[in-house]
Amino acid sequence: MLADNSFDEKKFPSVAKLLRATQLADKRSIILNWDPPKDEGEVIIARSNSMIDTAEKLFIADSLGRYKSGGPNGAKSFYDYNLKPGTYYYAVALVSDIRKREVKLFANQNYTITPIVIEETETNPSISNTPDFDPLPLPSGFIRDIQAISENNFIRISWNPPARATAGRTIYTIYRSNSPLTTLPLMQKATKLAEVGHPTNSFLDQSLEKSQTVYYGVSVKEGKGEETLPLVDKESTIRVFYVRNKNSDDAEVITESSPVSNPNPNKTTPEVKPDPPGTLHVRGIGYERVGKGVVMTWLGPEVTDGSTVYSVYASTRPFNAGTQSFGPGMAVKVASINHPKTSFYIKELKPIEDLYFGVTVKSSSIDEDFNLSENVSYFRFDFDKDLVVPSREEVAKQEQKPNETEKKQEVVSNQSYVAPVDLKLKDEESISVQGTHSQSTVVFDTSDSDLDLILRETFMKKKFELAVYQLESYIKREKHGHLLGKAYLFLGISHSKLGDQRKALKYLQKNEAKSFSPERTDFWTNQVLEKLSRGKS
């Protein structure tokens, strides 16, 4: 049978053209090629053991999937691998035509008339998704720009494909988890939702029934090759707050907010680059003077679990030479701290000319990495920072309250701390550190700080509107991660108390808030999500 001479492309813009089926060199696989219809949409690829020359035959044929048609990423080819012996015919039709029962079929245009015969073989070759033909260039390995939106009561996940993804060959696997998907141990906790073939670049999750926080991720593989795991945060995996409205048939999807912009354009902050694959680093390291000692705080890496451990090091030289900065006589390990603790208190430091502190990270699956960045994962301690000579009146007041002073000292002494450290590394001497603990809890007196003054005068007195006003002004000028996290937490709680749950969630999902108090932040996040699910905005 020849091509249908009655086919006129202008009259039938929804019909695919020049469909061709070719058997590959492995004798078990077929490649389809066609020119897409002018009308955009989705096409269905159908397969049958008899010619698909009527609409009725099309409706009962095997469907090989739905694929986007038209545009730069539209489907133009398809690989049908590892076929059993038999005779095969194919057809390509627009989904919208099938739904409207308006399918038009033209021989050698949108259906094949020449059968492809897969014959029996004497041997039983091993099944492979990599047939014996010149391989196509592999895609880059990861999808990009993963997005999540609400679709009625469901969540639609979409993504941009790798640069060289191929229809029928590139496969996307969609995962969902209650934990991040950026390490292999965490990936083991994930639920595999589905596999879809390129050029499909979205998936509708219809299985969520209640408000919750979930992580979605999409991996890439070629045929039956290996998946590209683990995934890349905010590129191939995303955190989603799913808010189910109980009083209506819809839901709200809130994705993780972007990082806070620098409120002072004249003040530069170090650029924090994503961790290279297989490494972990802290971010936003900083410190506060507390008497003769110091409280240092930091933000954990984007991905942490129960095995994450921080190591605090001290040195008289910057930690800018990689592993050489941690050699014998160069640095001393002051403490090891288990996540979620992200702070450490040293009761007293003796002044020396130069003193640096750095923090490394490791977990059960990722080794410690010693490539630190200044003011990101290590800092120079300034002995003159925040030192104010007390006035005579302040000294007199302090002398009049010996019991209160002793009480404060008792509170501090009950915390994990390092006794006075004498760092003398100039002669390659080792450092003797007394009182080092494997876990460190920090509670220090900030009763006279601006933040606690705000909280005492507003939040503690249940003046939540005033608390929101003053805290929003405070976070614009605060740079210290520990104090910023505390402000975010109470700002989120204040918005929740005022009934604005969406604004509350905006601040509670900040990394700084989670680092300041993971338990309280999770508690209030769940409270807010529950209120949102009941329709309280």
From TrEMBL:
<feature type="region of interest" description="Disordered">
    <location>
        <begin position="252"/>
        <end position="278"/>
    </location>
</feature>
<dbReference type="InterPro" id="IPR036116">
    <property type="entry name" value="FN3_sf"/>
</dbReference>
<dbReference type="InterPro" id="IPR013783">
    <property type="entry name" value="Ig-like_fold"/>
</dbReference>
<protein>
    <recommendedName>
        <fullName>Tetratricopeptide repeat protein</fullName>
    </recommendedName>
</protein>
<feature type="compositionally biased region" description="Polar residues">
    <location>
        <begin position="255"/>
        <end position="269"/>
    </location>
</feature>
